[in-house]
Specification:
With about 120 residues, the protein is an all-beta fold. The protein contains no helices and eight strands. Helix content is about 0%, strand content about 45%.
């Protein structure tokens, strides 16, 4: 008898950082916060009402995250494209969204420099 093993789940790292997202290059940016991140996806809470559908663009602003210490301002921001794979209402009533990270580019955005508007 062959035993089927469950697929391994990517390790998650608890990261609190601002995230901005939009559904098209001409759309306004909406805001949220990351809850955790893995090599294949991210869980974040949305500040705005309404969920992105299909593919969307998001920027995880690690340079503005909850990390502290020397060199933190040098962390790259992650510019990503992905899709919503799950959404739930959290215990505090916030919308939690799990999104895949299909493509990403890291870019250095030191504190105080321009960010998506």
């Amino acid at each position: 008898m062959k035993i089927r093993e469950a697929p391994l789940r990517a390790a998650r790292l608890t990261v609190r950082a601002p995230v901005r997202y939009r559904v098209s290059p001409s759309a306004d940016w909406a805001e949220g916060w990351t809850e955790n991140i893995s090599k294949s996806g991210v869980l974040f809470s949305l500040a705005a009402i309404g969920l992105p559908t299909g593919e969307f663009e998001f920027v995880i602003e690690l340079s503005r995250g909850a990390f502290q210490g020397p060199g933190v301002a040098l962390l790259p921001d992650l510019h990503c494209h992905g899709r919503i794979v799950r959404d739930v209402i959290g215990a505090d009533g916030a919308t939690l969204v799990a999104a895949s990270i299909d493509r990403q580019v890291a870019s250095a955005t030191p504190r105080g420099s321009a960010r998506p508007s």
